[in-house]
């Protein structure tokens, strides 16, 4: 019999089938990774959800640094579209945050013909004079690389002229195969010119950096609250609520916590080589995952007081949510979900849903690499293709003056097997037989997955959100949380469950069929299942 | 683009060209679009359109990579077309270019030909190339570029069909539905291009179809070439991209381009045009018109409150401007992000006509603007309502001006696709939204405003009530209505050139000794009761002493209208004392106008508190608006506990001055800006300063001469002549009202500008007076001075050789009969140049006498009878003599 995977791939012909077949995997055994093809060029014409290199660099990694001007060099569109589009909240420095601004050189036709350097210089000057940023990040868009504007020399000039840090990022949209390339370029820039230049020394040994936390709907605020309550000091946060000086001092922390493995693992790896700082793959999304993370952190720092405090805080927080947790577990248990988010984040929400007894049956990533699916052990097997090789690979060396190890080699080796230290196990190991995993998913595949797996709710982005809703499945946006959140740690998990419950039980789902129609408004069993859900609740 | 910047776009009021192109393609039946470029373009556009329309938005991408930029993207595009056709089975595909494709010079038509050649079975799919690089415009231009691409690439059937082409720009699906209903109701046979009514506002139906099923079909479009007339709803798109113009040039179809039908007259025009073309106007539509007119009349009383900021795509903006103007809502700040020819030319006459009725000036109409620019325009024109897309919400929040969301994008609320503004009903819906927003705003603050303006002054005259209120811990914040501030300005001697300066007196309270900056021309450790210049005082008062002094002065000087704080340091560096003094005096006399002068450094901290205190007039000294120049003027600035020097000092000071000025002006505080003219430093920069401060809301500037003070860094700086200062004031007068009569007063000056009697009110003098009056004998103040002050009329500076009445200047000396000290030269014409400048009738003699009002005697060659009597009446002895100055002065002093 044709498997569900084969049904999905059936719609493709010839070359497209050949290309897509290795991106779609149906697990044959519980918790066992299978090889998947990832981080390859998308097939033109399929309704994919990937962004571009510029999006990863400007939109994801640099954009959330709240006291820097991130200046888009190019025509207006790219500047407009990265204007605070993700919902990364920033606390504001002295009541001011540059995140709510969009800065662009707004290139016109004549600039494309005669070059935009002059315009860029003046724009940097104006940005510095008016906004007094801590730094200016110049981000290139497609035409800039093609017309050959030398943004590097402009950055150098600006740094000398104004005495303000100015870094250029050649993150033209066509580079790489997705936004992932942009993450890498941004990571490189921060590593080369920012990290290691600061002097904000933490005051406790339990000092950490929070990497790959986007602070969507205040996620990082809640995480920071828990960490601070236990006695950790958050030296810096990357990719959400970022502050330039804090990032510059990141090398003074004792442990890096990696939340989103995809966008920021480069920095974690490079800091390990250069400064000797270990990194821990954490997950603050999900109650059990938060507990695991907190315990692993305590194990790393190996301090009795810290361990005791960790348990106290866990108990304290659990006590507060236990009633709600039980309630929503009862309401949601047994439901099935689909999740398509980002390059590492689907895994997080899968864990969170598992807390409430919801199984994820369909999932995938837009721009993940193989290690995000299968675990870091596959990294040596990944062959770099031309698209990846075109992105600069930094090989930092040990910085003798600043290199230090927080734990000795014996302790390190002993811990390595026990906790996710310098390691990420990937998503597949948490999935059951029969679950579907799609890399670089597109609209047709999503539609098929919906009808084959019939999830009760689908977590995704805005682009496929309305298509999923039209097909009769409740859908939630995970890039903005639909203006809700936070979803991290203990209380966040309850917020998430509450929102999910509301979506599944929205009264509208019960009203799909007009009284004069005896048939459901939707074909097949999708409409029926929605009605069933409604009746269940009623 | 904001007015501060030339190259930096801060918060764009526009999206990109391909977005518009794709939007238009959503009005075509069974059409898919593919963007030839990086995949980010389609992702971003899908994301933004999906948020606005709350519908699935499918835009394919040719997913160009680095390799494609080198070798061309033909293979990518061909593969993209193949997949798109296979997955969606469209009848039409629009291939829109992006910056990338256009920059590498892709030949889209060529690629499409190649595609057809190698894919025979795809020939039934109409593939349309559209040139839409982001650097060639905004979504508005992109929309029309797509329409143009469509009409130029569909093979036209030119057989006359009697239909009318209706072409629209970007209007909402709901308005498109209205348009179709209207055309049907008028029995017009039409072809609508595009028709986004279904595809961008679909229902939740039985089955979701990935391929858009609504919209205008290619078959219908093919008949546009045989239509009898074209109506294009929109007037701003260039003729080179106008489908109507193309159809006329190619097929000879006559056309009209009309405003989008928003507002009574614009809808009338459309209906009338359709009627001329054979349509009938049914009763139902006439009723709609009547209802709309009735609504206009019902709400006209409230609409006139509106000062609207309108922003977005040009045609939308014009529609709203039309609606506003005919309802008496004044469009004061009107911008578009497009570089739009004719925008200002078309809209200014409309807006100014509406503004003229209510005497509103300074209307701002600009194309190629961003939100930073809009904000500036709104501040300048005191806009109180915003109409435009969701991106205006930041400005709305910042300026606390309500925003009525319309246009693209609406992404912070739902329903952008269902908004209505067209037709009588749509106009009515929008008008109601505007008027109701204005009404709710009005209701929110009306009680308080009315209470403050009319009731508060009443109770403040009742000390019992006031103190009772204060005792209960009531907020003592005061805010004055704008009208009240105008009246106060007229009674303020320093802010008017009119009669005020003679009629009304002011007193400066030296309550602020500390300063937070060091200007190179300033020295505050000088203390002479007879020196008159800013920064000088003989004593520092506590807030309580201020109150006492105020009471004393007020008793003797009923025309005292103004209490000012002018140092000797900076008022805001001594804020606690200043605020206490102001509160005490306001309690004593609520009618007093408070003014204050500051360098502005601490304004960002204290501006609102000043307003709450009831300070209505603020003088800011801004000598430069360029930190490079500022750095030469200021030695150092102490801010938040850190001392800065050089350009960073000047930069901090400047930033705070400008933001402070903006804030105060926004809150209707009357701001005067003082500028000290410093030769070789800022004399060529003053014009720029004046322009800048005007832009931010200053009402008057006062360009002053430098008084070189011994010991200050600018001691040696060359003097600025009266002529030079007047020339500078004249030059700058073009931009902003100039103060011509500044006396550069002391920090403890008292009296009218021309007559400083502060010496009368010094602590020890007051004490002596007290004593004297207790002893029953009032002594004249001059006698209490140890030294005599004498004025000398001289031409050569050695001899008393000048007639009193012809004296252009006096030398002022002090002497006790044995010692003699030169004080200063006083120029009779220093402060006033007569009627044409001041508009007052002070005659020359009075001015001469005023110049020496504080002297005990005046020595001149000769003196007429009239001045003699006048001088005697003022207690000044006049001595006629011909002698050398030293001898004569000593002799006269000894004899006094």
Automatic annotation (TrEMBL), chain A:
Enzyme Commission (EC) number: 1.18.6.1
SUPFAM superfamilies: Helical backbone' metal receptor
PANTHER family xref list: NITROGENASE MOLYBDENUM-IRON PROTEIN ALPHA CHAIN
Keyword field contains Oxidoreductase: yes
UniProt cross-references to Pfam families, sorted A to Z: Oxidored_nitro
Obligatory cofactor(s): [8Fe-7S] cluster
Residue stretches in coiled coil: none
Protein name stated in the entry: Nitrogenase protein alpha chain
Catalytic activity: N2 + 8 reduced [2Fe-2S]-[ferredoxin] + 16 ATP + 16 H2O = H2 + 8 oxidized [2Fe-2S]-[ferredoxin] + 2 NH4(+) + 16 ADP + 16 phosphate + 6 H(+)
Domain Nitrogenase/oxidoreductase component per the UniProt entry, residue ranges: 52-500
Single GO term (MF): iron-sulfur cluster binding
Top EC group: oxidoreductase
Family matches, as PROSITE patterns: NITROGENASE_1_2
Key words, A-Z: ATP-binding, Iron, Iron-sulfur, Metal-binding, Nitrogen fixation, Nucleotide-binding, Oxidoreductase
TrEMBL record, chain B:
Record family assignment: Belongs to the NifD/NifK/NifE/NifN family.
TM regions (residue ranges): none
Lineage: Bacteria, Bacillati, Bacillota, Negativicutes, Veillonellales
Cofactor: [4Fe-4S] cluster
Gene3D superfamilies with a match to the protein in the record: Aldolase class I, Dinitrogenase iron-molybdenum cofactor biosynthesis domain, Nitrogenase molybdenum iron protein domain, Nitrogenase Molybdenum-iron Protein, subunit B, domain 4
Highest taxon listed in the record's lineage: Bacteria
Protein name: FeMo cofactor biosynthesis protein NifB
SUPFAM superfamilies associated with the record: Helical backbone' metal receptor, Nitrogenase accessory factor-like, Radical SAM enzymes
InterPro entries tied to this protein: Aldolase_TIM, ChlB/BchB/BchZ, Di-Nase_FeMo-co_biosynth, DiNase_FeMo-co_biosyn_sf, Elp3/MiaA/NifB-like_rSAM, MoaA_NifB_PqqE_Fe-S-bd_CS, Nase/OxRdtase_comp1, Nase_CF_NifB
Radical SAM core domain sequence ranges: 501-743
GO molecular function: 4 iron, 4 sulfur cluster binding; metal ion binding; nitrogenase activity
Name of a matching Pfam family: Oxidored_nitro
Function of the protein: Involved in the biosynthesis of the iron-molybdenum cofactor (FeMo-co or M-cluster) found in the dinitrogenase enzyme of the nitrogenase complex in nitrogen-fixing microorganisms. NifB catalyzes the crucial step of radical SAM-dependent carbide insertion that occurs concomitant with the insertion of a 9th sulfur and the rearrangement/coupling of two [4Fe-4S] clusters into a [8Fe-9S-C] cluster, the precursor to the M-cluster.
Any one of the GO BP annotations: molybdopterin cofactor biosynthetic process
């Amino acid at each position: 019999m044709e498997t569900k995977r084969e049904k999905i791939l059936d719609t493709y012909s010839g070359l497209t089938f050949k290309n897509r077949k290795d991106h779609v995997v149906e697990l044959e055994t519980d918790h066992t990774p299978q090889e998947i093809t990832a981080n390859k060029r998308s097939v033109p014409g399929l309704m994919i959800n990937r962004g571009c290199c510029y999006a990863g660099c400007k939109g994801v990694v640099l954009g959330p640094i709240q006291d820097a001007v991130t200046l888009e060099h190019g025509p207006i569109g790219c500047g407009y579209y990265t204007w605070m589009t993700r919902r990364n909240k920033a606390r504001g420095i002295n009541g001011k945050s540059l995140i709510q601004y969009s800065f662009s050189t707004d290139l016109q036709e004549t600039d494309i013909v005669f070059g935009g350097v002059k315009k860029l210089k003046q724009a940097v000057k104006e940005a510095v004079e008016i906004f007094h940023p801590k730094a200016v990040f110049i981000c290139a868009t497609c035409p800039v690389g093609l017309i050959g504007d030398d943004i590097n020399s402009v950055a150098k000039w600006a740094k000398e002229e104004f005495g303000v840090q100015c870094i250029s990022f050649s993150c033209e949209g066509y580079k790489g195969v997705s936004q992932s390339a942009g993450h890498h370029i941004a990571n490189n820039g921060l590593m080369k010119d920012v990290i290691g230049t600061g002097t904000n020394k933490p005051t406790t040994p339990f000092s950490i950096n929070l990497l790959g936390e986007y602070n969507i709907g205040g996620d990082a605020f809640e995480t920071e609250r828990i960490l601070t309550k236990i006695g950790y000091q958050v030296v810096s946060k990357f990719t959400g609520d970022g502050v330039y000086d804090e990032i510059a001092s990141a090398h003074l922390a004792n442990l890096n916590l990696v939340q989103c493995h995809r966008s920021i693992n480069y920095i974690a790896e490079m800091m390990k080589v250069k400064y000797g700082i270990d990194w821990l793959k954490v997950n603050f999304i999900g109650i059990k995952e938060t507990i695991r993370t907190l315990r692993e952190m305590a194990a790393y720092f190996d301090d009795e007081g810290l361990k005791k405090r960790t348990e106290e805080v866990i108990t304290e927080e659990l006590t507060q949510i236990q009633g709600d947790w039980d309630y929503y577990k009862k309401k949601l248990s047994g439901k099935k979900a689909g999740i398509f988010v980002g390059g590492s984040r689907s895994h997080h929400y899968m864990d969170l849903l598992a807390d409430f007894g919801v199984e994820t049956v369909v999932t995938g990533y837009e721009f993940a690499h193989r290690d995000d699916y299968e675990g870091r052990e596959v990294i040596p097997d990944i062959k770099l293709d031309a698209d990846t090789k075109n992105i600069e690979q930094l090989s930092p060396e040990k910085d003798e003056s600043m290199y230090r190890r927080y734990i000795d080699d014996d302790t390190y080796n002993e811990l390595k097997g026990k906790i996710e230290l310098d390691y990420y196990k990937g998503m597949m190991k948490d999935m059951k037989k029969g679950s579907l995993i799609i890399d670089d998913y597109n609209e047709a595949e999503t539609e098929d997955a919906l009808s084959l797996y019939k999830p009760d709710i689908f977590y995704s982005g805005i682009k496929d959100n309305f298509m999923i809703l039209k097909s009769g499945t409740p859908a939630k946006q995970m890039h903005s949380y639909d203006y809700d959140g936070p979803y991290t740690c203990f209380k966040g998990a309850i917020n998430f469950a509450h929102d999910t419950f509301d979506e599944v039980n929205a009264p509208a789902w019960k009203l799909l069929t007009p009284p004069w129609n005896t048939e459901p408004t939707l074909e097949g069993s999708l409409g029926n299942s929605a009605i069933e859900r409604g009746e269940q609740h009623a | 683009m904001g007015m501060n910047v030339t190259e930096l776009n801060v918060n764009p009021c526009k999206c990109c060209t391909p977005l518009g192109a794709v939007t238009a393609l959503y009005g075509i039946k069974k059409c898919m679009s593919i963007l030839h470029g990086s995949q980010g373009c389609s992702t971003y556009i899908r994301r933004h359109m999906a948020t606005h329309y709350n519908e699935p938005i499918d835009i394919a991408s040719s997913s160009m990579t680095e390799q494609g930029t080198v070798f061309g993207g033909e293979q990518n595009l061909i593969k993209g077309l193949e997949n798109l056709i296979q997955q969606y089975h469209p009848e039409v595909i629009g291939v829109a270019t992006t910056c990338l494709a256009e920059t590498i010079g892709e030949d889209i038509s060529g690629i499409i030909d190649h595609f057809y050649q190698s894919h025979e079975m795809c020939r039934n799919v109409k593939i349309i190339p559209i040139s839409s690089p982001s650097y060639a415009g905004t979504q508005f231009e992109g929309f029309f570029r797509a329409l143009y691409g469509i009409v130029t690439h569909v093979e036209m059937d030119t057989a006359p069909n009697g239909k009318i082409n209706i072409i629209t720009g970007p209007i909402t699906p709901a308005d498109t539905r209205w348009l179709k209903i209207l055309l049907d109701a008028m029995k017009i046979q039409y072809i609508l291009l595009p028709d986004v009514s279904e595809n961008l506002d679909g229902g939740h139906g039985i089955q979701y179809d990935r391929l858009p099923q609504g919209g205008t079909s290619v078959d219908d479009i093919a008949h546009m070439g045989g239509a009898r007339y074209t109506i294009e709803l929109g007037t701003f798109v260039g003729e080179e991209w106008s489908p109507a113009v193309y159809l006329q040039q190619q097929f000879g179809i006559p056309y009209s381009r009309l405003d989008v039908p928003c507002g009574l007259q614009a809808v009338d025009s459309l209906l009338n045009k359709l009627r001329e073309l054979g349509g009938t106007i049914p009763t139902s539509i006439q009723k709609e018109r009547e209802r709309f007119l009735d609504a206009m009349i019902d709400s006209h009383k409230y609409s006139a409150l509106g000062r609207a900021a309108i922003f977005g795509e040009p045609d939308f903006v014009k529609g709203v401007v039309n609606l506003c103007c005919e309802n008496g809502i004044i469009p004061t700040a009107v911008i578009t992000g497009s570089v739009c020819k004719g925008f200002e030319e078309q809209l200014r006459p409309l807006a100014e006509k509406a503004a003229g009725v209510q005497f509103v000036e300074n209307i701002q109409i600009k194309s190629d603007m961003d939100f930073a620019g809009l904000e500036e325009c709104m501040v300048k024109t005191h806009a109180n309502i915003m109409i435009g897309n969701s991106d205006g919400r930041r400005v709305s929040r910042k300026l606390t001006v309500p925003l009525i969301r319309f246009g693209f994008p609406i992404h912070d609320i739902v329903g952008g696709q269902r908004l209505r503004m067209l037709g009588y009903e749509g106009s009515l819906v929008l008008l109601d939204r505007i008027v109701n927003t204005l009404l709710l705003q009005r209701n929110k603050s009306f009680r308080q405003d009315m209470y403050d303006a009319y009731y508060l002054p009443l109770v403040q005259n009742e000390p019992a009530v006031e103190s009772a209120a204060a005792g209960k811990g009531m907020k003592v914040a005061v805010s004055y209505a704008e009208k009240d501030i105008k009246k106060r300005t007229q009674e303020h001697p320093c802010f008017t050139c009119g009669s005020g300066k003679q009629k009304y007196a002011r007193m400066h309270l030296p309550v602020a000794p500390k300063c937070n900056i060091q200007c190179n021309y300033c020295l505050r450790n000088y203390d002479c009761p007879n020196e008159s210049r800013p920064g000088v005082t003989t004593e520092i008062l506590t807030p309580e002493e201020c109150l006492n002094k105020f009471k004393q002065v007020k008793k003797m000087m009923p025309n005292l209208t103004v209490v000012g704080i002018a140092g000797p340091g900076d008022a805001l560096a001594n804020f606690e004392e200043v605020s206490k003094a102001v509160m005490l005096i306001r309690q004593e006399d609520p009618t007093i106008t408070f003014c204050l002068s500051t360098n502005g450094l601490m304004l960002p901290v204290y501006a609102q508190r000043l307003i709450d205190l009831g300070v209505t007039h603020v003088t800011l000294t801004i000598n430069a608006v360029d930190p490079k120049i500022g750095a030469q003027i200021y030695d150092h600035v102490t801010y938040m506990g850190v001392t800065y020097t050089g350009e960073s000092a000047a930069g901090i000071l400047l930033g705070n001055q400008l933001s402070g000025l903006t804030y105060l002006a926004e809150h209707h505080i009357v701001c005067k800006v003082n500028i000290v003219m410093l030769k070789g430093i800022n004399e060529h920069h003053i014009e720029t300063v004046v322009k800048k401060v005007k832009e931010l809301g200053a009402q008057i500037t006062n360009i002053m001469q430098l008084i070189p003070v011994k010991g200050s860094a600018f001691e040696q700086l060359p003097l600025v002549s009266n002529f030079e200062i007047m020339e500078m004031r004249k030059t700058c007068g073009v931009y902003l009202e100039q103060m011509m009569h500044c006396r550069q007063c002391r920090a403890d000056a008292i009296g009218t500008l021309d007559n400083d009697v502060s010496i009368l009110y010094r602590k020890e003098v007051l004490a002596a007076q007290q004593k004297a009056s207790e002893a029953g004998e009032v002594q004249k103040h001059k006698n209490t001075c140890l030294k005599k002050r004498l004025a000398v009329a001289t031409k050569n500076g050695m001899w008393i050789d000048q007639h009193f009445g012809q004296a252009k200047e006096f030398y002022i000396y002090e002497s006790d009969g044995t010692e003699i000290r030169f004080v200063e030269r006083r120029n009779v014409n220093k402060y006033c140049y007569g009627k044409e400048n001041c508009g007052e009738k002070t005659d020359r003699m009075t001015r001469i006498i005023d110049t020496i009002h504080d002297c005990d005697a005046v020595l001149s060659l000769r003196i007429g009878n009239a001045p003699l009597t006048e001088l005697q009446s003022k207690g000044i002895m006049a001595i006629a003599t011909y002698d050398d100055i030293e001898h004569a002065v000593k002799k006269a002093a000894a004899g006094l």
